[in-house]
User: Fold this.
Amino acid sequence: MTTTLPAAAEAPDDSAPSVRPVPPAAAVPPAASAPLTDPVPTEAPAPSGLRAPGFPEEQVRARARTGSAAVFPDPAAYGAHLFGPAAAHGGDALDRTRIVPPVFMPERLEKLIDLAREPEFGDVDLTAGVGGFTARLPLYLSAFGSTRAGSGDLAVHASRQAARLGIPMVIGENMVPVHGYRKAGDASRSALRARVEAYLEAAPDGVGGVVVQQSTEDADSEVWNLLYSDPAFRPLLESGRLAFELKTGQGAKPGLGGMTVVGRAEGEQLARRFTVREVFGEDAPRLLRCATPGTFTEEILRQQLRFMRNNFPKARTWVKFHPGRDIGQAARTAWAAGADAVTVDGAEGGTGWAPGVFLDHVGLPLAECLRRIGRPDGCLLATGGVWEGGRAVRALALGATAVGLGRAALVAVDEDPEHGLERLVEALALELRLLISALGKYAPAALTPDDLWDPAQGAVPC
Amino acid sequence: MDQPASSSAAPATPPPLGEHLRSPELRAAMLVQQEALQGARDYLRGQGFTELLPPLVGPVTDPGGRGAKALDVDYYGHPYKLMTSAILYKQASLRGFPRLFYIAPNVRVEPEETATTGRHLVEFHQIDVEIADAGREEAQEIAAGLLTHVTEHVWTTVPEILTGLGRTEADFADVRAGKYDVRTHDEAVARLLSLGHAQNPDGEIDWTGERILSLESDRPFFVDDYPKGSRGFYDREDPDRPGVLRNFDLIAPHGYGELVSGSEREADYATLVTRMRESGENPAKYAWYLKEAREGIPSSAGFGMGLQRLVRFLTGFDALWQVSAYPKLPGVVTP
Assistant:
C-alpha cells in the first residue's frame, strides 16, 4: 500500500481558493483558470456551454452536483491519504526565516574550554526533557488520530521505532471510542495496546514515554480511568513514563472536533454517541462521524488540569491546543495550572480528515503561534509540517522544547516499516547537530530567537 | 493501644472467605455493626429523616475522584454504571423527601495502591444523608450528632464486645461528649508541609497525610473548604471565595482517618453544567439529572459516612477488611 502525502509537487497553485488535491480525477474542461482540485470526480461538462473564466467555476459546478460532499476531500481517499494544507510556495512564515549563525561564538569558547579541543557538530547533546520524560532527541511522535492510516500496522511500526529512538509517543484521542477497548475483549483493545506493547518492548530503560490523549468526547468512555488501572500500562506508570494529554483541538481543523469517515453500518452504530452525517450523499456508502471539540474557558482548562493531576498523580499532565488566536494566554494558563507540557499544533499540522476550507484557511501558522507564546513558562512542544532539521531548529529557536513528527513519521514507516522512521530521524538529527553547532551552540535548549532572521521583519531582533 | 496498629498487625489480605466468616473477630465486628446501624437509624429518624433504599445501577453515577472508577453494566444494550455513590439521586429526591437517608451499598474500583491503606474496600456501604435547604454547618451538626449517638448507642448496648476488643470508654470520651474540632484545608496542608509531608495544596489530603493528621489528634475534627478540582462537580463553590468549596470531611482521631465526606450542593443548572466541564465530564451523559436541575432541585447539604470505617473506628481493628463479612480489597480478586 502507498500513502500519498499532498506535497508541493502535486499541490495546486495557491492563487485560488482550493480544496484538497486528489488523485487524478476525470478530465475536466480546461476553461476555468482556477486549478481543478475539487475532490469530487467531475463527470459531465457544462450542459449549456456557459463558462465563467476567472471564477472557480469547477468548484461551483462540483458543489452544484454533489452538495455537502464537495466540502470534504474524496472519501475514497480516506485512510490512505494523509491530509494537511497545501504547501505554500516557498514554505510558510517559519520556513521563510533564515537560520543565521553569528561570527562571534562565546558558547563555542565555553565548549572548547570544556573539551580542551575544538568542538564539532558531534558534540551537540540532543537529549531533552520532554514533558516530564527524558528524550534522546528533541522530538516526539505526534498523535495520528483515529483515521485508518494512523491506527493500523503503520502506527505499530512507528511506535516500535519511536521507542528505539528513545523519544516519547503520543497516542491519539478517539482510539478508544472508535476502536473500542472493553467491548469484545482482546480484539478491541488491540489498537491501543498493540502500540503500547510495541513501544514497551523496544524502549530502552529510562527514556521516552507514552502519552494518551483524551478529548471531551472520550470522557464518556473514560479512557484515562481505564488505562490508569490497566495492568498493561503498569510498567509505564511504575517507571514514570505515562502521561495523559488533554486534547482541546488540533491544527487541521481548529475549533472543530475529530472527524472520521465510517462505513454506513459502523456509522449507524456510532450514531448514539457521535454526530453522524450523510454529507457524501443519501446513498453514499460512507458517513461522516463528528466529535465535538469541547467547551473551554480559562477556568475550565485550569480545573480540568488540576483534576487530572489529582486523579492520576503518577501520570504526567500534557495539554494540546489548536492554533487559536489566544494561544499565548492558553499556554500560560496551562503551565500555571501545572501542565508538564503544552503542545501547539500549528495550522500546518494534522494527519486527520478535515474539510478543505479548514485545511487551507483556518488557524494560525506555527510561526505565529510561537511568536504569540513568546518565551515559554514551561515545556512547549510544537508540531506542524516538521520532517527535516531546518524547520525543527526554527521551532526550537522560537521556544519549543521539542517538535513532533506526524505525517512525516507515517510516510517514513510506510516507505520502510522496519526502519523508515529511524532513518528519517537519523537524517533529521544530523541536520540538528550541524545547524546547532553552526550557531555556536551545543544543546537545543541554548537556541534563541536571535538565531533566526525573519525577512518580513527586515532585521535580526536584538 | 487505641491506635490501629501498623499494617503488620493484621494480615494485608483476608484469609479464605469461609475461614473469615467463621472467625470470632468478624462475629464481634458484625455485632457492633448491627448496633451501629440501629443507632444510626434511631438518630436519623429522630431528626425527622426518611429512609429510602438507593438505586444500584444507572446511566451515570458519582464521577468521584482519586482514580476510583465505576464498574460497567450492560443494561439492555445501554452502558450503565454500578453506583459509586447515589449523590445525584439524593439531590433528585429532595422535592419529595426533604430529609432523607440511605444505607447505601457502593462499588468503587479503587486504585490498587489503596489496598494497603487499611481504609479501602471495593464494596462498601455509606450512611448517606441529604438535607434540603440546609447549609454546611447543619450537615456537620447532623454528622457529628450521628457519630456521637452511634458511639453512645454501641457503648450502651454492647460494651462487653468493645472492651473484649481492647477498647476503653476513655478513648471515646470526646466523641461521646460531642467535642469536635474544625480546621480548614489550607490549615491542614500547612500543618502537613510543616511536618515535612509533601501535600499537594490543590488536592485532597492524601492517604498518608490524612493518617498523619488523624494520628496526632485525640478528638474527631472537620476539615473544611477543599479546593475546587479536588472534588465532584456537585460540591458547591463558595460564592465569596472562588476556587473554595463549601464542603468538609470528618476525620476520626488516633489514625482511623476519614469517616465522612460532605458538602453544600450545587443546585443551579448553569453552574452544574459549567462545573461538569471543569471536571472533564460530558454533560450529555447526565441528561436525566440536568433535566431535574433545570426544573429546580432544592439547595441542600449532605454527607456520606462510611459504615465499615465507622465500625472499624468503634472496634479498633487494623484493616477495613476485618469489619466486612465479604471483603473485596482493591486489586485483589476474591469471591
Remarks:
- Residues 1-43 of chain A have pLDDT under 50 and may be disordered.
- Chain A touches chain B at residues 182, 214, 216-217, 219-220, 222, 225-226, 228-229, 246, 294-296, 299-300, 302-304, 306-313, 338 (CB under 8 Å).
- The radius of gyration of chain A is 23 Å.
- The first helix of chain A runs from residue 57 to 66.
